[in-house]
Amino acid sequence: MLAIDQQESLQQQWHSLPEDKISYLLNTDLENGLSNEEAVRRKSEYGLNQLTAKKGKPAWLKFILQFNQPLLIILLSAGAIKAIIGEWLNAGVIWGVTTTNAIISFVQESKAEGAIAALASAVKTEATVIRDGKKLRISSEELVPGDLVLLTSGDKVPADLRLIKIRDLQIDESALTGESVAVEKEIHEILLPPETPLAERDNMAYAGGFVTFGQGTGVVIATGNNTETGKISQLLDQRVHLTTPLTRKFNQFSQNWLFFVLFMATLTFAIGLGQRSFNDAVEAAVALIVGAIPEGLPAVITVTLAVGVNRMASRNAIVRKMPAVETLGGATVICSDKTGTLTENQMTVQGILAGGLPFTIAGRGYNPDGKIMLNQQPVDLKKNPTLEECLKAGLLCNDSHLEQKNGSWVVVGDPTEGALISAAAKAGMIQQAIEKLYPRLDSIPFESQFQYMATLHKNRTGNVVYIKGSAESILQRCTSALDAEGTETSVNHELIEQRVNDLAKNGLRVLAFAKKSVPITQETVDHPDIETGLIFIGLQGMIDPPRPEAIAAVHACQGAGIQVKMITGDHITTAQAIARRMGFRKNKKVIAYTGVQLAEMSNSQLANAVEEGSVFARVAPEQKLRIVEALQSKGEIVAMTGDGVNDAPALKQADIGIAMGSGTEVAKEASDMILTDDNFASIESAVEEGRSVYKNLLKAICFILPVNGGESMTILISTLLGRELPILSLQILWLNMLNSITMTVPLSFEPKSAGVMKRPPRPVNEPFLTVNRIKRILAISLYNWTLIFGMFEWVRQAPWGSIELARTMAIQSLVMGRIFYLLSISQLVPSLVAKFNGSKEKVSGAPALAAGIVVAVILQIIFANSEFINNVFKTAPMNLDQWLICLGVSLPMIAIATFVNRFDPPN
User: How confident is the model at residue 105 (pLDDT cuts 50, 70, 90)?
Assistant: First the structure.
């Protein structure tokens, strides 16, 4: 028996080895299986057939890590300094602010990744094995390498198997390989080469696949983490959780701002020591720290993202990780899986050739609603007997049927046969009724070496054999054909082969249909009976068609400057055909690469190929991951969609992973967002919301930072001039937390601005603070400083003024100026102007904005006129004249805001 490391080194070659070699390497009997004693020994060596998960961080550690942010660390330090000098109230308030921020972040943090656990459930099942020559039913966890496993229709493949016996075996491997059609398995006399792609190793069965038809026997060659599904779990385990563009930019901004704040606080403290007492110098330094740090910004960002999450949920996009809201809005590339994402994941007949006439079929999926058309006109089946005969052949030479579940039609059996049943139903032919008229007597099941299936049916005038299969296998057996009137005539092989090629170029899978009359006494059928003398009936071409709404969504994304690329495990011809239908064109061409081609490329060649190409077919999970990484190395913000196990590593690596609601649990757990309606079109809506969220975040930043700038300038200049501080650290906390959050949260509810999807994605490396935004913040900060410092000095020197009243009126003037500034950057004023000019559009953002302003005013009244607040925050009551003075000095903000809005438009 091979050692574990030797088995792993051979894992890529099992499909290329003969059966006797496999038996020798695994030390197993291919007839009687392992002995029970040997199975127990191997289980102790290899362990259970299950995937091992990596433990997540404990909850207490996750909470502690919420404080591991530069701005919060400096605030904690400021609180500690206040505590050391005995000002416990100030210290408590500062610590309360930081703890509140940490709690908000902890609550909103995504649940620990459960991808590995989901993978484990994906492969856990029961298995039928042969041990000591006896058939046993055991848990799949008990399987070991060398076990002999029996498969039958409906089974889930419990481990990676090398098939040694099959009977019409078909396995759905779409979750692993991306193939939209069940794979017909074969036992090759000529062994496959070692480099054969995963999807073409048809003498193998992989853990997690479903047997849709037939039977088979295979020997276990890999269990647990050594299976192909296990490899994906390792890829998921190895991925470092990437930060999003939003968090990267915010972290960079925080670091830069931290260094600036520390420098200014140190300078303020040093100057203060030369002019005032130690405690006063500390108060000035702490006040500058508290004033310069935007304490409310993390909470506002959280609220803004949460609003975006709720809006996306109403548009069928469930966000699992909040920063993904903004990330999607900045996406420059969307990499989409094909099967079930861009397409229906339901085979559909779209073209029929019968009696030399080309018919087209409307309708989607297995739904029987639709029409058969000739020259864009509905056909009368009675006037097209050959078409009727072609549809009848598809119904009778068929082992599947359709069922309606939860309002949708699904196929029980082979998807290709389901498409044939649906096509006939669109012409009014009911499978059960036709089968009753032509009862089946015998059949020849599909076999790969013959490439056809045949069924014998009882008929009143004589029994009839219907045959379906590949055009090559059927045409060579045909000696005549039916014309448009149903009359037997000579067969034109060249014309039919040309039509087959035409259908194939459009990505359609083509089946040919024929029949043969036999004596009424013949009740069995065998291969020699249909070797020759067949009558050609027609062709049916089918495809897993693209969703119409997905086509529109692709065009919309491209119009918004977002590249859309298809990454699939399907055939390159089929993928290119779907891409052409959906408009995946670059310079009027669909540039496509296969997984084999990608594997031969260096990293630099791959980076160029992923930029140039729009279709990547027959790719392995590792290659999907490599494609995403190559795009990211080019500076792209990558969104990846998918629904299968094979998509999970790429979903996790992408800047935002988008899973389908009907996809595997593995894909959902690895993703940042889930589309509940499985509709690529919902991505367009999500991108639109994401862009709006980012715009609202910028408004929030440009609203909050000027207050911090004005406060910092006030503290620094007052210290330099040796003046009393116009604003204290506790008063700054009031402004930065309660007042800022109350007035900034309404910006989170701002609706999308016009033309948001007609603009290109924002530059990938665009910082939070562009040159124009810095100019805006400096201009407003300067005016805020003027308000605070000017009002404080004026009231302080007035005969009726006191230092507490001076500080109170300075703060109230600042808040009133903020209200005017808030109105200038919101969409409320432009909406009111448009309404006044006759627009029928709803006034945008009015309720939230009005509520925020009203609450802010009430808080400021309490701030000035509550005795308790006066004692805690050292403020003083104000009379009506004083309120009006504050209002008057804040009015110039209207002109200043109008000026800055010209070079830095807020919407």
Answer: low
**What was the pLDDT predicted at 312?**
80
Handedness of CA 231, 232, 233, 236 (dihedral sign): positive
**Under 8 Å CB-to-CB from 343, ≥6 apart: which residues?**
180, 544, 545, 546, 547, 550, 578
- The letter for the amino acid at 691 is R
Q: How far is CA 822 from CA 549, 740, 852, 860, 889, in A?
A: 39, 11, 10, 16, 16
CB 458 within 8 A of CB 441: yes
β-bridge pairing 673-675 and 656-660 = parallel
What does the block give as tokens for 797?
């020197």
- Count CA atoms within 13 Å of residue 465 on its CB side: 28
CA distance 775 to 705: 12
Query: At which residue do the structure tokens 């939860």 appear?
Result: 406
Number of H helices, E strands in the chain: 35, 28
In angstroms, the CA 591 to CA 584 distance is: 9
Amino acid at 62: K
Q: Return the closest-CA partner of residue 372 out of 362, 364, 382, 387.
A: 362
- In percent, the amount of the chain with pLDDT more than 90 equals 30
Q: Which of 289, 228, 229 is nearest to 257 (CA)?
A: 289
CB 222 within 8 A of CB 233: no
Q: Give the whole-angstrom CA distance, residue 274 versus residue 256.
A: 28
Q: Is 358 exposed, middle or buried (0-12, 13-18, 19+ CB in 10 A)?
A: middle
What band does 110 get if pLDDT is binned at 50, 70 and 90?
Answer: very low
Cβ 878 vs Cβ 804: under 8 Å: no
Give strand pairing partners of 128: 137, 150
Specify the pLDDT at position 907: 66
Q: Report strand pairing: 126-131 vs 615-617.
A: unpaired
Clarify whether 160 is annotated catalytic.
no
Q: Is 171 exposed, middle or buried (0-12, 13-18, 19+ CB in 10 A)?
A: buried
Task: Name the band, by pLDDT with cuts 50, 70 and 90, for residue 233.
Answer: low
Per the residue annotation, which of 172, 337, 643, 672 is the catalytic one?
337
Portion of the chain with pLDDT greater than 70, in percent: 85
pLDDT tens column, 571-608: 788 788 888 888 886 666 888 998 889 988 998 999 99
Q: Which amino acid is at 408?
A: S
More confident residue, 666 or 131: 131
Distance, in Å, from the CA atom of 74 to the CA atom of 59, rounded to the nearest integer, reads 24
Angle, alpha carbons 228-231-237 (nearest 5°)? 150
Q: How far apart are CA 691 and CA 670, in angstroms?
A: 23
CB-side exposure of 779: number of CA atoms within 13 Å? 21
Tell me the two tokens of residue 94. 């500062």
The continuous run of DSSP H or E covering 261 comes out as helix 245-273
Query: Are residues 512 and 469 in contact, defined by beta-carbon separation less than 8 angstroms?
Result: yes
Structure tokens at 654: 């992408």
Adjacent-strand bridge partners of 564: 334
Between helix 88-108 and helix 70-84 the angle, nearest 10°, is 160
Q: Which two tokens mark 695?
A: 């715009």
Residue-wise pLDDT tens digits, 526-548: 999 999 999 999 999 998 888 88
β-bridge mates for residue 210, sequence order = 156, 172
Task: Report yes or no: 178 and 228 within 8 Å, Cβ to Cβ.
Answer: no
Instruction: Say how far apart CA 166 and CA 631 lie, in whole Å.
Output: 42
What is the Cα–Cα distance from 281 to 277, expressed in whole angstroms?
6
Torsion of CA 737, 743, 748, 750, to 10 degrees: -170
Residue 835, amino acid: K
Rounded to the nearest 10 degrees, the angle between the axes of helix 245-273 and helix 70-84 is 30
Q: How far, CA to CA in Å, does 304 sit from each of 61, 91, 98, 541?
A: 26, 29, 19, 50
- Residue with the larger pLDDT of the pair 712 and 835: 712
**pLDDT value of position 860:** 93
